[in-house]
Design brief:
Helix content is 42%, strand content 26%. It has 340 residues and is of the alpha+beta class. The protein has 2 domains: 128 residues, no CATH class; 202 residues, Thrombin, subunit H (Beta Barrel).
Length: 340
């Protein structure tokens, strides 16, 4: 009887043993697949990390070369490069830590931040490749400090620049007509860069609306005056393009040399990168001193592409706005090549 019971138990449990063996085999396959996939994903992450590190190393090496190439031309740009280098390195370290912890959400967020920081650094590298000294030398003597008296004792300063050798100059509407554009100057004075002389000037035209913020003035100097080498066409620049601003960021308070007891106007050069271009605006991320209203904004070829008119509050002049040069071309056209 016991033998029959054992046989019956074996018969009834045979299917269970078979099922258990099958399930165990499936479990082994699942575990093996899981281990394989984990190793594959780890390999992919490792290769991605190595590729990212290689790109970062390349970008950092290029930025270091860019800093060295500046040779003090634009101190603000060198400082910006250093800050961006540090930011890229910091975000890259944070990304490595997030990968190690397996936090997918943090990894995705840090990847986006690293992409943005790297692009900023690359833009600054492109800006560092510009030969600022040559086109500054070619154009800065056409840039002038403008003094505007709107009422007795009420004098404002800004920047203007000559577009013709017979004294047609461009500045901002608000510089010569006040913030709302309704006032009229009683006197205008022009002092060109590296000069200790101030020449009388007169207002020729104001832009018909406040959006353009452009004015045309005229100074008469016997023998003529320097002029910028070239005005760009249209907007002339795209986001990411390097630019430079020549002007007098502190106006009459800018430190200057003296010749014969008289102060001599000295321009400042500020490098930057275009961050936005619209039909009526060029936005620039600057790397140095604050800009001065009316300053010409040059592209890397030395063409004037915009006129600086203001900046974003709270950025210390690091984000500035310019009017595309096309607006100035149109406003000045009736006075170019004519005796005024």
């Amino acid at each position: 009887t016991s033998q029959k019971i054992r046989v019956e138990v074996q018969r009834q449990t045979k299917g269970l043993r078979t099922l258990t063996a099958v399930l165990f085999g499936v479990l082994l396959l699942v575990v093996a697949a899981f281990v394989f996939e984990n190793r594959r994903q780890a390999g992919l992450r490792e290769r991605e990390a190595q590729a990212t590190q290689a790109r970062i190393d390349s970008v950092l090496a290029a930025s270091e070369a860019a800093v060295q190439s500046l040779r003090g031309q634009v101190a603000g740009l060198a400082d910006a490069l250093r800050r961006s280098q540090a930011e890229v390195e910091r975000v890259n370290r944070d990304l490595a830590s997030a990968r190690a912890s397996g936090d997918a959400g943090q990894v995705a967020a840090l990847r986006a931040r690293l992409t943005s920081a790297t692009e900023t650094l690359r833009n600054q590298q492109r800006a560092a490749q510009v030969d600022y000294s040559s086109f500054h030398q070619a154009n800065h003597d056409a840039v002038a400090m403008i003094y505007v008296e709107l009422a007795p004792g009420e004098v404002f300063t800004g920047t203007a620049f000559a577009i013709t050798r017979d004294g047609v100059m461009i500045t901002n509407r608000h510089v010569v007509a006040g913030p709302d554009g309704t006032r009229r100057p009683s006197r205008i004075g022009i002092k060109f860069a590296d000069s200790d002389q101030t020449f009388a000037a007169r207002l020729l035209a104001l832009s018909p609306d406040r959006v353009a913020d452009v004015a045309v003035v005229k100074v008469d100097i016997r023998g003529g005056n320097p002029a910028v080498k070239s005005l760009g066409g249209g907007t002339g620049v795209r986001p990411g393009d390097p630019v430079a601003i020549i002007g007098f960021p502190l106006g009459a308070e800018l430190p200057s040399d003296r010749v014969g007891g008289k102060p001599v106007a000295r321009t400042s050069l500020t490098a930057g990168t275009v961050s936005k271009v619209l039909s009526d605006l060029v936005q620039v991320d600057g790397y140095g001193a604050e800009g001065s209203s009316g300053s010409p904004i040059f592209d890397r070829a030395g063409n004037v592409v915009a006129i600086l008119y203001g900046g974003q509050p709270g950025t210390g002049g690091r984000i500035v706005f310019g009017v595309p040069i096309a607006h100035a071309r149109q406003l000045a056209a009736p006075f170019v090549g004519q005796q005024q």
